[in-house]
Structure formats: structure tokens, C-alpha cells
Amino acid sequence: xxxxxxxxxxxxxxxxxxxxxxxxxxxxxxxxxxxxxxxxxxxxxxxxxxxxxxxxxxxxxxxxxxxxxxxxxxxxxxxxxxxxxxxxxxxxxxxxxxxxxxxxxxxxxxxxxxxxxxxxxxxxxxxxxxxxxxxxxxxxxxxxxxxxxxxxxxxxxxxxxxxxxxxxxxxxxxxxxxxxxxxxxxxxxxxxxxxxxxxxxxxxxxxxxxxxxxxxxxxxxxxxxxxxxxxxxxxxxxxxxxxxxxxxxxxxxxxxxxxxxxxxxxxxxxxxxxxxxxxxxxxxxxxxxxxxxxxxxxxxxxxxxxxxxxxxxxxxxxxxxxxxxxxxxxxxxxxxxxxxxxxxxxxxxxxx
Length: 352
Ligand SMILES: Nc1ncnc2c1ncn2[C@@H]1O[C@H](COP(=O)(O)OP(=O)(O)OP(=O)(O)O)[C@@H](O)[C@H]1O
Ligand SMILES: [Mg+2]
Description:
With 352 residues, the chain is an alpha/beta fold.
């Protein structure tokens, strides 16, 4: 789903509140490789919830990201970037068989039945996924106008040509699902520092929701319950995880409510799918990605609750890893969005 035009070759730029990540891919005899890559930290408060609060600081950081890039070859001046997950969403709607020119009006009638929306403040994009005797199955993407406009403006100021801005479920599913042999209906959970996104995938993204958990909230919870400093808590989180044998299972205990909440939200999302999508098939698994997927034993603990297979994504299943020191196990999960955006740069015809 794109809110701008398509492009020939472009690099992917993942913008999160605290990090900028760059990926440019190349295709050499059917093999996809990372050509250029980089990551830099953004100063605190430069971006809050995806809104650019300090444009000058953002621009300096973006220029630094580009200047200090690793790899080989020339960087494209065309960029494919991502919109903040918590401010955007995808949703599939079903309509009767109607003419193309009636679709947008129909969507604007259907969407507000579930979600309050001011259509003057958002951009809407859609794609027909299926057309049959019963009607149309349409994937709708929604994103705020002010965010889109501010991203275009700032990228242009960096002398880049923003060609596509995507909702985050698009690059994630492009890398982890479309490239893979495994196309089972599944729930994908991207656990980031600031926010967690959940989406349901069955041949395409069916809907997305934002979950009220995050890596930072997890660290904060350790700070408050164990009386540690932020740095100590972050370290404890990484070293102990949810392993019963580590740190006397302390974190497993203090996170039991968070795990129950996560279990509850995932179950609700799956039930929402079963009740609202006539074509729904059994959900085969839950796939975890993003930095928070590195939380030791999170998959084991969730799987016990959900009674569904829970697995950790493998971002480099289909892409050659040029630098195992840089893209180590820990960091690889954080680069999924950037690589998925880079893939769109190689495959300009791809919808999702
Ligand atoms: N081994 C680990 N155990 C637990 N949490 C981890 C581990 N490694 C990283 N994290 C957490 O992952 C989070 C970072 O995830 P990620 O890099 O995907 O976020 P981001 O893309 O920068 O931010 P966001 O997507 O929220 O905008 C941090 O909260 C970090 O503490
Ligand atoms: Mg992220």
C-alpha cells in the first residue's frame, strides 16, 4: 500500500522514534543482497509517536545516516519509507459488487462503523484483493495527512525523492511472508521499543492493530518493580529474559500480567478475524519480530498460554547477510522493516 507513486530503484528508510535505519538492496543473478546499510540513534524528543518535533535535528541525523553508510556502490536518491505504526492501519472491507467510482464512497461509509475517523485529516488508499459473485474484498490503508506531508517535506529537504510511504505491516510481510514458502494464515507481532504492532496475515494483510506494550514499557516495569536504574533494568531484561532458570525466574514472575494481557489481545484479534471474515481459515501460528522478539523464552511462554505454535522470525532467510557482525542475531530483528522497504525498491510493481 503506498501513499505516493511507485519507483524503479530506491533505498529503504525505517524511521522509528529513536533510530533511523537505511537499507539498499541489489539483485545479482536472482539472489537478493544488502548493498548499503546503516543505523543511527536519534536524540530523545526529536520524534515522538512518529511526529517530527525537531526537524533540524532530524535532518542532521538523516544526513549523518547517509554520510556514514556502510557497504558499496551508489545510494539512490529515491527513498521508500514507513509511516508510524501507531498512527496508521490496514483493514479489509467487504462491499457488494459496485463500480470503481463508487468504491471510495462505500469505504467511507463502512470504516466509521468500527473506527471513528475524520476523513478531512487522513489519506486513504485501497486495493481490490478479490472480486466474486458476492462482492468485493478490499484492503484499505489509512494514514494521517499531517504526518505524510511532514515526512515528504523533511525527506525532500534532505535532497531525497520520497516515492513510497508505507504502513509498517507492508514491509514486514513482504520480507517475512511473501518471500517465504510458508504462507499459512498467521498473526505477526512486531515488538519495538516504543510500540507493538499486531497484524493478521492470510495471503494478504487482513487488519492491523496497535498493542499497548513495548520494549521500553517492559524495561520501565523492571525499574519500578525491582528498583533498578534504567541501564540495569535493560541489562537484566536482556540477560534473564523469561527464562525460569535465570535470575531465579524473577522476570517471569513480574511479567505474568503482561504475558496474560498479550495472550488476551492475540486471542481477541484471532476471534475478531473468525467472526468478521467469512473466508477466515484456522490461524496456524504466531510469528514474533522486532527487537522485543529477542526477549529470551518469550515464544515458549506465549506458546504455553496460546496453545498455538509461536516462533521467532528469521529476517535473513531469503536475503544474504553481508556483515554478520553488524547484522547479529539481536540487531537483525530490528532491521526487518528497513529490509522490507528496500525490497519494495527492487520490486516496484509489488502492491504490498
Ligand atoms: N535480548 C532482548 N531481550 C529483550 N528485549 C530486547 C532484546 N533486544 C532488544 N530488545 C528490545 O527491543 C526494543 C527495540 O526494538 P526495535 O529495534 O525493533 O525498536 P525500534 O524499531 O527502534 O522502535 P519502534 O519500532 O518501537 O519504533 C528495545 O526496547 C529493546 O530493549
Ligand atoms: Mg521498529
